[in-house]
Amino acid sequence: MGKYTIDSLSELLLEYLPEGIILSDENGDILYVNPAAEHIRNIRKDEKIGQNILNCHKEESREKVARAFAHIKETPNADFHRTVFDKINAKVYQNTYAPLYDEKKSFCGMAVISRDITKERESEEKRVLEARNQEIAIANLQAQYQNILLAAMETLSDVMEAKDVYTDGHSKRVAKFAMKLYEHIYGLTDVYYDIEFAAKLHDIGKVCIPEHIITKPEHLSAEEFEVIKNHPAIASNLVKKIDPGNRITPAIRHHHERYDGKGYPDRLEGEDIPLGARIITLADSYDAMRSNRPYRSGLSVDQCVNEIRRNEGTQFDPEFAEAFCELIRTGSID
Prior knowledge:
Largest sheet: 5 strands, antiparallel
Helix content: 40-55%
Strand order of the largest sheet: 2-1-5-4-3
Radius of gyration: 23 Å
Structural class: alpha+beta
Order of helices and strands: HEEHHHEEEHHHHHHHHHHH
Strand content: 5-15%
Number of strands: 5
Oligomer: single chain
């Protein structure tokens, strides 16, 4: 028999793994931190062991962490990934959260596995941006002109939203949520920034809708709703003239289509709806549900999840809806 046991070898493995490992018990109290976790996350294990995992995060992040821990604890065999942007230490690392079970298959804790992806992320971002810049450079001066017009439209959209306290910042939030969903499913590709542009401009058509309808504090009448339904088509007509390759116009035109074919303006159905539009409609609906309105308060996170799940396959693409709800449950979308 050798001098090492399976337990001692397991301890050595944990200590020398290049991935950071943090283990907690069933209550979230931290039991173990390996050297790689100390290095990757810039922490000291003697300060973290014995602390509850919630207390290791900033106060504004604790509600998200609690949701993530509850998801792990309450969902059999659940695990999920989350990309963390550590601005203080200029790092990006990917965390994998996984439940731990005892011999009776009862939940007994959680493992957080961290991998430093700072260099990979920088390389991917550089690759995506270079690919996008090369594509834009082909059109040379024309592309520069188009970018100026895009920025002007975004500014116009911001001005329009700022007139109504209930929609101020809406398009930027929609863009943030949409980009998180796209990256969660597809990673960083050359479509990533198309999603951002389309989301930021998705409501630009409302500049042509009478202001008394846009800012009306009550529910719209049937006639007023018919007027406002024109904004996706108006937006696509505005944007298509400055959209090389028709990259963002389809997502803008069709962001109010429904997966069951009962949306507008063209009653597209299922995967005939452009991918960007299916993503933006989820982000758009979520922000609308979370926002306060004169006639109702914003919905809670759980209420929004229930509403999205209720409309899977009718209003929303079921695959995207499932992924979006996972991002909400795990705190990646607030």
